[in-house]
């Protein structure tokens, strides 16, 4: 079968983008043709083994781009493919792989936001996927996300599927944490063996709470922070750079940009700091646990429950308080406690179920395509 994937922006640093490309490859490996449609792409070599078609889109605003892309994708792909799969909320989708929270839920109690045209557009696109009597099958990544969408739209339960966790087995390398390998990685980053090293992985610094970690550096003079996903020239990190200079910790922050060697970087670090304001899943949390890297995160992350289940760190509750985050970091300053968390995380990370999300998504997409083809043939048969 011939299946179209659609994602507004395709670049190597985003978790949704990695999911899109990995699932496309899995569907292809199941014997089907997959073409990815996008409005913009970057990162040489990313998805180079897959057909990627860039649709020319005019609007520059996020909501304008998404609406224009939705219309152009429907016009271009609707009659050429057996199934339309979206990784953003778009019109006319057969399947939506949904990684974000409900826009309608976010603005329900915020009248000012409801007056802004950008939110009208996003809510309308959301309605076309989740509203009652729509036909899209929706793949969701966390229980909290599923409840939020159902509460917002009363979506038919038979259209919603909760996927297992989406850890990539290739990023599970706890053996990299052996002393000799770890020292080698730290040396390559210019880190002395005794420097207490935090790591943050994000391309959305405010959403993922990097400012909270920057402020916490003031309380720990021996701590250094590695930021993966953004480099020192990225405009998305401008506010973080200003903050780090303002409070005098910029010399203890290292910007690493986009990296694929996440397991090795985690082996070099002592702690994952992920005090996110919201994260539908937080796959980086699972990666850290499975690689034996202790985690300090927030309950606003869908996968935070695995930190508690594994006894691999501390989950800071909502509503977030910086002082509680600081207290968690103080607990993580104890190397013996970190060692306990590390061992517990490695053991927990051996579960094969943590890697089932993407394969399951690929299977469900193929099943939907088969069902769609069967329905089309049945309709055609009745017509004759």
Compact overview of the structure:
With 384 residues, this protein is an alpha/beta fold.
Descriptors:
six-stranded parallel beta sheet; single chain; 16% strand; Rossmann fold; globular
Cα-to-Cα separation, first versus last residue: 23 Å
Q: Report strand order across the widest sheet.
A: 5-3-1-6-7-8-9
Q: What is the approximate shape? A: globular
Counting DSSP E segments of at least 2 residues, the number of strands comes to 15
Could you describe the largest sheet, including whether it forms a barrel?
Answer: 7 strands, parallel
Q: Give the radius of gyration.
A: 22 Å
CATH architectural label of the largest domain: 3-Layer(aba) Sandwich
Number of discrete helical segments: 15
In helices, the fraction of residues equals 40-55%
């Amino acid at each position: 079968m011939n299946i179209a994937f659609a994602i507004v922006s395709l670049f190597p640093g985003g978790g949704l983008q990695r999911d899109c490309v990995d699932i496309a490859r899995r569907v292809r490996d199941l014997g089907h043709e997959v073409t990815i449609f996008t409005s913009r792409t970057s990162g040489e070599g990313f998805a180079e083994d897959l057909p990627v078609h860039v649709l020319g889109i005019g609007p520059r605003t996020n909501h304008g781009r998404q609406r224009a892309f939705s219309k152009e994708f429907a016009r271009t792909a609707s009659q050429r493919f057996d199934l339309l799969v979206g990784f953003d909320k778009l019109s006319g989708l057969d399947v939506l792989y949904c990684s974000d929270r409900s826009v309608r839920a976010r603005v329900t109690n915020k009248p000012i936001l409801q007056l802004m045209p950008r939110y009208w557009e996003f809510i309308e696109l959301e309605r076309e996927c989740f509203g009652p009597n729509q036909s899209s099958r929706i793949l969701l990544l966390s229980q909290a996300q599923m409840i939020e969408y159902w509460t917002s739209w009363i979506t038919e339960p038979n259209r919603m599927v909760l996927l297992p966790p989406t850890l990539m087995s290739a990023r599970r390398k706890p053996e990299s944490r052996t002393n000799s390998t770890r020292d080698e990685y730290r040396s390559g980053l210019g880190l002395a063996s005794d420097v207490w090293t935090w790591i943050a992985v994000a391309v959305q610094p405010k959403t993922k709470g990097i400012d909270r970690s920057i402020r916490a550096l003031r309380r720990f003079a021996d701590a250094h922070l590695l930021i993966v996903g953004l480099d020192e020239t990225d405009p998305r990190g401008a506010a973080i750079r200003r903050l780090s200079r303002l409070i005098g910790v910029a010399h203890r922050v290292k910007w690493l940009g986009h990296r694929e060697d996440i397991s090795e970087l985690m082996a070099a670090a002592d702690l994952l700091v992920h005090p996110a304001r919201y994260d539908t899943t937080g796959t980086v949390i699972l990666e850290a646990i499975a690689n034996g890297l202790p985690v300090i995160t927030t309950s606003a992350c869908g996968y935070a429950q695995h930190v508690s289940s594994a006894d691999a760190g501390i989950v800071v509750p909502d509503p977030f308080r910086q002082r509680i985050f600081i207290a968690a970091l103080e607990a993580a300053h104890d190397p013996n406690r970190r060692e306990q968390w590390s061992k517990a995380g490695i053991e927990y990370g051996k579960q094969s179920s943590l890697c089932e999300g993407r394969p399951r998504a690929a299977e469900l997409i193929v099943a939907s395509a088969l069902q769609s083809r069967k329905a089309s043939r049945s309709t055609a048969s009745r017509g004759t």
